Amino acid sequence: DTGVSQDPRHKITKRGQNVTFRCDPISEHNRLYWYRQTLGQGPEFLTYFQNEAQLEKSRLLSDRFSAERPKGSFSTLEIQRTEQGDSAMYLCASSLTLGDRGQETQYFGPGTRLLVL
Amino acid sequence: AQKITQTQPGMFVQEKEAVTLDCTYDTSDQSYGLFWYKQPSSGEMIFLIYQGSYDEQNATEGRYSLNFQKARKSANLVISASQLGDSAMYFCAMREVDRGSTLGRLYFGRGTQLTVWP
User: Fold this and answer.
1) For chain B, percent helix, then strand, then coil, each to nearest 5?
2) Which of A2, A61, A111, B19 has the smallest number of Cβ neighbours within 10 A?
3) B24: number of CA atoms within 13 Å, CB side?
4) Which residues pair with A47 in a beta bridge?
5) What is the per-residue pLDDT for B26?
6) Residue B100, pLDDT score
7) Confidence label for A39 from pLDDT (cuts 50, 70 and 90)
8) B41 at interface of A, judged by CB pairs closer than 8 A
């Protein structure tokens, strides 16, 4: 399978605990995105990387959230001191951009469902 | 203001019939891209079709076509010959390009739940 993979697929945690999610993009893709999707809503952008560089962060990404892509391959998203409002699906996507204005399609992984009790 | 508006929370269509899912968008950019994704109950977002703002012809991909009306800022998805497996949530999304190629985020609508019945 050469698609985007995410681990774990499901996570239940207690309020106040830290959690970390992993995303492995399609191997030749240089961009990696994180989105959050709550029930009944479309995905909302959190942050993205081009290679190792984090190029954009949404204001949704509070200080409790941190994302890394240390070697330009896989990425991790950590949430510290989780709150019940963090319960959501966390989606990762990857794309290949050549720096032009053409089509850049983001391919999504299966997501990680987080439930904070 | 919402960048993407999908006004149909749910749509029903009989198998083998065509269905149109509505999407309007809001941007001041001249260059942008429009996407449709399908999300089955399993949760994964599946890319369906893309339309660039400068594309003169409507995009088509198999049974999917995009009815792009630039002046009205609409990008409706048409699914022909619906199948039971088409039952899913469908999202319209937009990427703005004018402000630089480093701008990568997609803006999504709230989605339309499509149910195909036999």
Assistant:
1) 5, 50, 50
2) A2
3) 9
4) A34, A57
5) 95
6) 57
7) very high
8) no
In tens, the pLDDT along B75-116 reads: 999 999 999 999 999 999 999 876 655 567 899 999 999 999
Query: If DSSP codes are grouped into helix, strand and coil, which group holds residue A84?
Result: helix
Specify the pLDDT at position A71. 86
Q: What is the DSSP string of A31-90?
A: EEEEEEE-TTS--EEEEEEETTEEEEE-TTS-TTEEEE-TTSS-EEEEESS--GGG-EEE
B79: helix, coil or strand?
Answer: strand
Contact A76, A97 (CB under 8 A): no
Among B118, B87, B74, B108, smallest CA distance to B11 is for B87
Chain B residue numbers touching A107 (CB-CB < 8 A): 47
CB contact under 8 A, A99 and B43: no
